[in-house]
Amino acid sequence: MAEKTYLQAISDGLRQEMQRDKRVFVIGEDVGVYGGAFKVTLGFQEEFGPWRVIDAPLSETAIVGGCTGAAIMGMRPVAEMQFADFISCAWDHLVTVAAKQRYRAGTPVPIVVRLPSGGGFSGGPFHSQNPESSFAHIPGLKVVCPATPEDAKGLLVSAIEDPNPVLYFEHKHLYRRIKAEVPDERYLTPFGKARVHREGDDITVVTWGAMVYTADEAAKQLEEEDLSIEILDLRTLIPWDRKAVLESAKKTSKVLVLHEDTRTGGFGAEIAATIAEEAFEHLDGPIKRVTAPDSPVPFSPPLEKAYIPQIEDVAAGLRELAEY
Amino acid sequence: MAIAREAEPVSSLREIREAGLDRDDLLLTYRHMLVTRGIEERGHILYKQGKIPGSFYTGRGNEASAVGVAMAMGPEDVGTPLHRDMGVHVTRGVEPWRIFAQYMGREDGPTKGRDGNVHMADSRLGLIAMVSHLPAMLPVAVGAALAFRIREEKRVAVGWFGEGASARGDAHEAMNLAGVRRLPTVFICDNNQWAYSTPMHLEYACETLADRAQAYGFEGVVVDGTDVLAVYREARRAIEKAREGGGPTLIESMTLRMEGHAVHDDASYVPKELFEEWAKRDPIERFRNWLRENAEFTDEEEEQLAGSVKKILNDALSRADESPLPSPDSLTEGVFATPEDLDTPHHK
Hints:
The structure holds 2 protein chains of 2 kinds. Chain A has 11 helices and 14 strands. Chain A is an alpha/beta fold. Chain A folds into 2 domains: 2-182, Thiamin diphosphate (ThDP)-binding fold, Pyr/PP domains (Rossmann fold, 3-Layer(aba) Sandwich), CATH 3.40.50; 195-323, Rossmann fold. By secondary structure, chain B is α/β, with parallel strands linked by helices. Chain B is built from 12 helices and 8 strands. In chain B, helix 2 packs antiparallel against helix 11, helix 2 (23-48) packs across helix 12 (299-322) and helix 6 (137-150) runs parallel beside helix 7. The chains are: A alpha/beta, B alpha/beta. Chains A and B meet through helix 3 and helix 4 of A and helix 6 and helix 7 of B.
């Protein structure tokens, strides 16, 4: 057990899997010699060679499509998109080919696509997005959004082991800011099991990724106001832990759904609808959403700050619910 | 002036034997072509009888191209054939009754009614099922070749596309990656001159599509796609070259799509003279004549072959008709793979 950053945990998990399973290889832009734009695969090419840590041309379509072909031939590819935003170029290969191949042709496609996502550093409209809900909507894809270093490693191992295409959203803002104890040995963090980040009785916050920490700061503020907030970190959106969400909703009777992605059709809408359908009788207030507005991610700091849900936004939402 | 090489026809039994096919193989090739056309002709009838839901596509005119390439593939090689390439499925050994079951949306089709027409593949035969987004299968084929390269296996991946699909970015990215990494890939362009109603000069501006190969750093060849032996010889050369580490080849196989895009389409936009001209080059008729002239193909052999193909098709149709329709209860089965699904010849 050692203290590691979120980024080191991803890197260590990936390295361990490559050491134990020769089928696992990495492909992406600048992942080899350079070690990746964020240095997740730094030193990998020296250790595993240029045919297991492959510097690809600037070709997201060929990278993800190529992973699909290699996976069907028995490999366990891990593709890196330099930024999650660039996954739009490979949409067809995830949605049209990989997602549907098991259903229609009986051929599993065990690939992992690593997606450095999220804003908070003036990355602008093309280096800051959180496109998870677009993929959560596609039957056949799994969607993973770790929030802690321990989960970052365990969910990556599970993603590589999973027989399906898995989109692994790693939040860039957490890379070096979040540090915690991470077990040295190999372990799998199961998909579809939410983590209780903070226990509480009055209001439930359902969230994932970097927003877990925003929610936590808000909860600390409200603790001083004698409000006890429960925070559920979903960890994975497909599959998502409906049971844990419904149980918590029934316990607290008030729910706030929080995400950094935009509002309309965001995954929060699915959660809210499910709670409304299945726990309506238990609710003492409307289900509240705190999300980014329906706009592209802006560049300039005051605009970006207004875009990404802040601690005050969450606290205000919680107070509103408390008073309802 | 075109950059790509133009393939020569095969003029004798000796020449084709040197390329890899003996007389028995030639008769087998002819048989695969007859079965291919027979399946699609019977399919057309089934469609008119209302037994095939959705639409129906044929590859009439492309039989030589599909069968010729598939005959050149090794048993461990893999491919991503498209909707004009029924001959690849037939040659690799998909049982015709399973194809009819697929057409009719039955439980015993390779996709169990989850997908229709030629959107199918038997992975045990080294084939990967196509999607409608045609050039999307090229990066997949390149990925298969990448797996072979990583594992240092002497296997080759064959990726098919059409001249219409050549206009999309996937085709470029796939060929570029294969070229940069010299992956064991053979690209087959079924150039049948028409992408639905769009003629080839509105799909690309170079003289031949095979010319593009040079830009990707590998060899391009144009072959007469109605000449099964020329197709075979070029495909075999390219496949063996790739197997020995010589990198990819792009083969452009020229044909004419002899029917509409799908059965609903009367192809009235194709000049009549073009159909008449290419009808004289029917690949099956052409190969039959070649066999007669060069391989002492007898009346007796021909009759026997026709009889056995007819029987295969009749038996296949009745067996497929006995296959049940899928149960609605199974609707969401298999959306996600389970670990047991990885127990395939490839994933092991």
